[in-house]
């Protein structure tokens, strides 16, 4: 195995992705990153709507190029009889199918789990929706923003004296995509571990709900409420019950993050910011005591950081082994030695709207296997770039048949 041509854990697995936007495509990206052949089915002419999200110039957004890397793009019209027939034909030759349509959509089109199971009784069917495939809200549409609110996440983001806010990425979709990829791999492993024993359709159907994906990441939100009646509230840049841990301003207009909430760390932290009185204060020896006086601690820390530049403060804190770090922008990440040492920024020439393709860095593959990120094979493909290849190699269609399908799809 070499870094340029590594063997990947999912080599030999074929995935059919009927996904749009972020959730199912994120699952597909993760599977593709680790070797699966992911065939992404897109609608005629426009393709996945993500192609136009945050499109600043050119024909395809960097968001699409990122989330759909290492995949093959084919164009089929799922609203046509032939498009649906081809989906079933492809599913018969795949190990996993990913989809994130509104529940009931595949069934309405005649390509639901029963039809998929009929053509491939070993197929893992991974479904992502707002609220899951069952329950009173199953048929209700919803994007990640709604799911993040219903999952308890939105209520905790922001300052206590302002309405809840959203984080700057579609975290609900991405977490659901992670669960979908994990669920798919679990089902594949179960199939392998029970060689010779066919799994029931119910065991091969992975049902991922956006709101449940978020709710599952809320740590002890629910048991704290049920056990103690605790209602968590927004606390800005802090974390409920943990102090001192926050962002603090420096005198060069930047801010840094310092997490000095461990009992032993707190002692040397306060010594470092020249407040031995706080280090010795009996009431501040436990986290509960520090949380009760969080405003006082944050004021003392902020007074110290405000006397230093970002780099000065971080150097002093690092020398004292106090966990801290800068608040990075995209420009900082691109230049960072640690990211680059682990191949976490990988460059490709892509269409940016300029006269010729330009070099653009893309985030590497996580988790690392070995000592650095596996190489990305290619960024998200052009619309329908692999239609002819897939129809020929996977389905064995003739050139004439493929010409007809492509012509009818494009018309």
TrEMBL record:
Pfam families: CoA_transf_3 (PF02515). InterPro entries: CoA-transferase_III_domain (IPR050483), CoA-Trfase_fam_III (IPR003673), CoA-Trfase_III_dom3_sf (IPR044855), CoA-Trfase_III_dom_1_sf (IPR023606). It is an enzyme of class 2 (transferase). Transmembrane segments: none annotated. Its EC number is 2.8.3.-. Keywords: Transferase. The keyword Metal-binding does not apply. One of its GO terms (molecular function) is transferase activity. This is CoA transferase. It comes from Rhodococcus parequi.
